[in-house]
């Protein structure tokens, strides 16, 4: 499958380099296939040949590769050159004369301000090279072909109504794909489509547009520098649902594109540049992907990110929701979210876009390539915003890949823990003559608990986050159970005697920490299941729930679940403040692992050890 002005439109086998790429792709990400439409080609090649001098036309009409012609180049004093997909060759060994150039110029339309002209009712493009006095001394006659069915790879994206930006080097087929998108939107999806045709390249030369655009309307531009004004005029005067624009190349056009997108009009455009990185580095077009600005970070934020104090960040939402990099004719790279891709690139991370490949059998396969350094993006959790990954440390090293839940034997320590817990409750002491009950005595929920020596704030946090049917009471008479520190139970005989008199069971924890309080409450509510892992809700371990706290806890969680537990290796985390390190210690304790802090402030950090 080939696109653009390149006339080579027949199916080809994937070359060895593509096969190597496909072998490294993750075929299970998007297993479905999309069937592309059978392509039909309309080129009106004879109309282009008719404008050429007789000696050149006669040779071309007999050329065996006539149907694969891309361009005819005629420069004054040089041999006429013809270009095909496999290369270029001289057509004659007679130099081009000024009379031959004038012969062609007289038979084409008017040359506009960008030195382009066309042939009426065709898609061919004739570009001129002028000398200093302004006389035409060279022509590039490019064959224009309408290839129907070229957007089979992205038709599902076109139908979403989101704005689409197509990138690629000159000649890869951006304009041809744009023309087909306009036709599909107008004819198949019945939308009001207006094409801003600056050089009459999309809909052809002349006042009547080429049939290849279907029912879409075309607005011509008097001078290239007025393109941005015509873009705004189209929105204000003709009530379009879709604006199609080719070759956005100036800052004013980029601003006009943003204005159109913010008015709720779907925008489909092209720009020169192979990858999104090219646009980020291009100050003229960077606004298409949101714009780039330098931001100065505070000392703490820069230390937390592990970056310099001055960093680059995206300035605004991107004009286009989706970007398509047309790297090859059979292989397009799709960025479903331009904002996420730009943010990843600015933070030094590798995006993981879709790769859509057209095969010889007409199928379009959607896969994802593993980037060179994959980033473990934490999943969205209830009530939590997505935590962005770091550009340093384990989180960007590609070694953290989230583990699937549930695991075969997720936490083998649970059974040992349950045995120890049961043994501790069966120990005899001064205030109980028998075995303590492991839970409430059949009381109706919610369970009323009398806390003694345990942080009430942490108790309320666990109850609220886990949505437990527990009510804290200050009256021992209304309590169903007592939750106390183990040291308080041993040292306060009065508590034991009161609980014994009222037949209220006492549950103790070694220390007032989130993990131990959580286990105790789950045990009291008979919610323990040794075969299932405990749910790790990071909100349990935060104090203020800020993004910094959540991000630090997510870093610790990923380190434990992806490295310490499965690989048995110790891990060092990024430097954190004492308050945040305390939260990380509690989270590590939740996994029944050990950790300690080392280093000097402000570089003091956690080290997590395997069990």
From TrEMBL:
Q: Where is this region: Disordered?
A: 370-405
A GO molecular function assigned to this protein is: ATP binding
> Polar residues composition bias: which ranges?
383-399
Pfam families documented for this protein: PTPase, R3H, Spore_III_AA
User: What domain of life?
Assistant: Bacteria
Instruction: Describe the location of the R3H domain by residue ranges.
Output: 547-611
Annotated SMART domains? AAA, R3H
Q: Which InterPro entries match?
A: AAA+_ATPase, P-loop_NTPase, PTPase_dom, R3H_AAA, R3H_dom, R3H_dom_sf, Spore_III_AA_AAA+_ATPase
Keywords associated with the record: ATP-binding, Nucleotide-binding
Under which name does UniProt file this protein? R3H domain-containing protein
Q: Which organism is it from?
A: Allocoleopsis franciscana PCC 7113
């Amino acid at each position: 499958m080939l696109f653009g002005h390149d006339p080579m439109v027949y199916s080809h086998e994937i070359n060895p380099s593509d096969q190597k790429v496909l072998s490294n792709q993750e075929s299970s990400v998007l297993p479905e296939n999309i069937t592309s439409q059978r392509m039909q080609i309309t080129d009106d090649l004879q109309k282009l040949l008719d404008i050429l001098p007789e000696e050149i036309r006669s040779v071309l009409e007999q050329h065996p590769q006539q149907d694969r012609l891309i361009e005819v180049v005629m420069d004054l004093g040089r041999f006429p050159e013809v270009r095909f997909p496999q290369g270029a060759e001289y057509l004659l060994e007679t130099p081009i004369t000024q009379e031959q150039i004038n012969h062609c110029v007289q038979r084409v339309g008017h040359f506009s301000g960008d030195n382009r002209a066309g042939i009426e009712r065709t898609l061919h493009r004739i570009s001129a090279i002028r000398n200093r006095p302004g006389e035409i001394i060279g022509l590039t006659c490019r064959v224009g072909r309408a290839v129907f069915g070229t957007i089979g790879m992205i038709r599902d994206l076109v139908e979403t109504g989101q704005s689409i930006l197509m990138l690629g080097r000159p000649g890869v087929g951006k304009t041809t794909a744009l023309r087909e998108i306009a036709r599909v939107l107008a004819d198949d999806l019945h939308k009001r489509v207006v094409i801003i045709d600056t050089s009459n390249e999309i809909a052809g030369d002349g006042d009547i547009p080429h049939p290849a655009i279907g029912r879409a309307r075309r607005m011509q531009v008097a001078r290239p520098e007025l393109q941005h004004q015509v873009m705004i005029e189209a929105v204000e005067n003709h009530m379009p649902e879709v604006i199609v624009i080719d070759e956005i190349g100036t800052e004013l056009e980029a601003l006009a594109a943003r204005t159109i997108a913010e008015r709720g009009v779907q925008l489909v455009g092209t720009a020169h540049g192979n990858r999104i990185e090219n646009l980020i580095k291009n100050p003229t077009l960077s606004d298409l992907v949101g714009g780039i600005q330098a931001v100065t970070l505070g000392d703490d934020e820069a230390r937390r990110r592990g970056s310099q104090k001055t960093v680059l960040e995206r300035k605004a939402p991107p004009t286009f929701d989706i970007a398509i990099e047309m790297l090859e004719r059979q292989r397009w790279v799709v960025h479903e979210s331009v904002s996420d891709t730009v943010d990843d690139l600015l933070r030094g991370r590798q995006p993981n876009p879709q790769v859509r490949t057209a095969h010889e059998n007409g199928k379009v396969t959607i896969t994802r390539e593993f980037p060179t350094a994959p980033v473990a993006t934490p999943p969205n959790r209830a009530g939590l915003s997505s935590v962005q990954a770091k550009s340093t440390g384990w989180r960007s090293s590609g070694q953290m890949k989230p583990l699937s839940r549930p695991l075969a034997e997720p936490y083998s320590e649970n059974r040992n823990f349950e045995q120890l817990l049961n043994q501790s409750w069966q120990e005899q002491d001064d205030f109980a003559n028998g075995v303590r009950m492991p839970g409430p005595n059949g009381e109706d929920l919610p369970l009323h608990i009398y806390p003694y020596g345990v942080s009430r704030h942490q108790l309320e946090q666990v109850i609220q986050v886990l949505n437990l049917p527990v009510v804290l009471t200050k009256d021992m008479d209304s309590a169903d159970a007592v939750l106390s520190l183990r040291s308080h139970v041993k040292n306060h005989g009065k508590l034991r005697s009161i609980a014994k008199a009222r037949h209220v069971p006492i549950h103790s924890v070694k220390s007032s920490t989130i993990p131990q309080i959580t286990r105790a409450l789950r045990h009291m509510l008979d919610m323990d299941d040794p075969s299932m892992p405990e749910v790790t809700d990071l909100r349990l371990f935060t104090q203020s729930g800020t993004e910094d706290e959540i991000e630090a806890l997510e870093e610790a969680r990923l380190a434990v679940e992806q490295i310490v537990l499965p690989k048995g290796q110790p891990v060092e985390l990024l430097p954190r403040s004492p308050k945040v390190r305390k939260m990380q210690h509690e989270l590590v304790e939740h996994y029944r692992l050990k950790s300690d802090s080392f280093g000097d402030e402000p570089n003091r950090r956690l080290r997590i050890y395997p069990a």
